[in-house]
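ok new one. same drill as before - structure tokens go in, u give me an amino acid for every spot. 103 of them this time. try not to just spam alanines like last time pls lmao
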């Protein structure tokens, strides 16, 4: 599959989340692609080649970058439903981590 700009970005050690606020945004990986509409969300694991581009002049989106966690699947995008599950897991683990620091 060809990326929108014919090149892919790869962020080693950094995960990326994209939230679409207006317009449409195309996100492409070597294995799949998706079009984000307003309210759409995608999580891109660290190390996954990807590219994105606005599909219209109204496209407004937020890209969030965070340090990667180990053990993530690098072969697919993650849906909003699964992203919520992952977020809950991160909060739970960070609470355990903070508890360890406080002891």
């Amino acid at each position: 599959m060809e990326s929108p700009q014919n090149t892919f970005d790869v962020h080693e050690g950094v995960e990326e989340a994209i939230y679409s606020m207006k317009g449409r945004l195309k996100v492409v990986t070597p294995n799949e692609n998706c079009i984000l509409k307003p309210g759409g969300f995608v999580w891109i694991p660290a190390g996954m080649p990807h590219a994105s581009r606005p599909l219209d002049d109204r496209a407004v989106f937020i890209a969030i970058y965070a340090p990667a966690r180990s053990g993530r699947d690098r072969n697919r995008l993650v849906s909003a439903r699964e992203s919520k599950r992952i977020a809950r897991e991160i909060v739970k683990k960070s609470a355990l981590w903070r508890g360890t620091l406080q002891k």
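The radius of gyration is 15 Å. and btw The chain has a mean pLDDT of 76.
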